[in-house]
């Protein structure tokens, strides 16, 4: 993929994400290339998060109270966590969709979730630059990034499985997120991963 193709696909992703998803699947990228793209995307994302933590450090001791923020100072750990998160998202996108009559494959779901990560990387880079120039805009971009993630996930899931109702896909996405969050919280509690609340 040339740089011009990359720019065109980025533009198409914002204008017509379903068409962008179809185009991505139609490229027929080998599975090995999809895994390489995943590793590259999570590595760059972790480095950007680390850079942000270095440019805008929290007061000493405050980051330790928020585990997610504390991890940003450890890019290798963060990259591993993001790798697992993307794989989980791809597995759910493919598996849950097939449960509801879809026909998407995990390999294509992996490609689409990696592409969402790439788009969010661009937003992350703009957010860091905006924080340096216009700090107030960075918070707005953070909210927009969350909305963009849900919007692209819904549209890509529709394209992957041939669904037609964005509302039903969105409800399925929210329901799946709650169910996975509940299961993960139970697992975390059973392994004692939650910190004890001081008396």
UniProtKB/TrEMBL annotation:
Record keywords: Membrane, Transmembrane, Transmembrane helix
One Pfam family hit: Yip1
Keyword hit for Transmembrane helix: yes
Stretches assigned to the Yip1 domain: 13-185
Subcellular location: Membrane
Regions that span the bilayer: 35-56, 76-97, 109-130, 136-157, 169-194
UniProt topology in membrane: Multi-pass membrane protein
GO cellular component: membrane
The protein, known as: YIP1 family protein
């Amino acid at each position: 993929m040339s740089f011009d193709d990359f720019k065109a696909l980025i533009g198409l992703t914002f204008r017509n994400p379903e068409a962008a998803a179809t185009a991505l699947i139609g490229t027929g990228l080998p599975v090995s290339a999809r895994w390489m793209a995943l590793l590259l995307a999570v590595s760059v994302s972790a480095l950007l998060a680390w850079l942000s933590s270095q440019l805008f450090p929290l007061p000493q001791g405050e980051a330790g109270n928020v585990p997610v923020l504390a991890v940003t100072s450890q890019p290798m750990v963060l990259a591993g966590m993001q790798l697992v998160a993307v794989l989980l998202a791809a597995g759910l996108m493919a598996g849950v969709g097939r449960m509801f009559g879809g026909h998407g494959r995990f390999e294509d779901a992996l490609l689409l979730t990696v592409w969402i990560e790439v788009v969010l990387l661009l937003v992350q880079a703009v957010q860091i630059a905006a924080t340096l120039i216009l700090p107030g805009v960075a918070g707005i971009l953070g909210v927009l990034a969350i909305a963009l993630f849900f919007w692209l996930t819904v549209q890509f899931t529709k394209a992957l499985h041939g669904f037609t109702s964005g509302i039903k896909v969105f409800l399925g996405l929210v329901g799946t997120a709650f169910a996975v969050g509940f299961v993960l919280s139970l697992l975390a509690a059973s392994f004692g991963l939650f910190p004890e609340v001081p008396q």
